[in-house]
Specification:
Layout: H1 2-11, H2 19-41, H3 46-57, H4 61-67
Helix pairs in contact: 1-2, 2-3
């Protein structure tokens, strides 16, 4: 799930560090991990599940704006 961590870090790289940022990043990471596990339980390979979870997670621009 290292790929997920890199993806989340990339999504939030422009946002200044803060406690709120760390909390939201952790929530996003947890949601993505849960989605990946659900997809894997449905028979998807790990790489496919990770890619699908990222695509389905969608746009977080509004979330990022709330941190600025």
């Amino acid at each position: 799930m290292n790929h997920l961590r890199k993806h989340v870090d990339e999504l939030f790289k422009e946002i200044p560090d803060s406690g709120k940022k760390a909390t939201i990043m952790q929530e996003v990471m947890q949601n993505l991990e849960e989605k990946v596990l659900d997809l894997m339980e449905q028979g998807k390979a790990e790489d496919d599940a990770i890619n699908k979870a990222i695509v389905e997670f969608g746009d977080i621009e509004d979330l990022k704006k709330s941190l600025m």
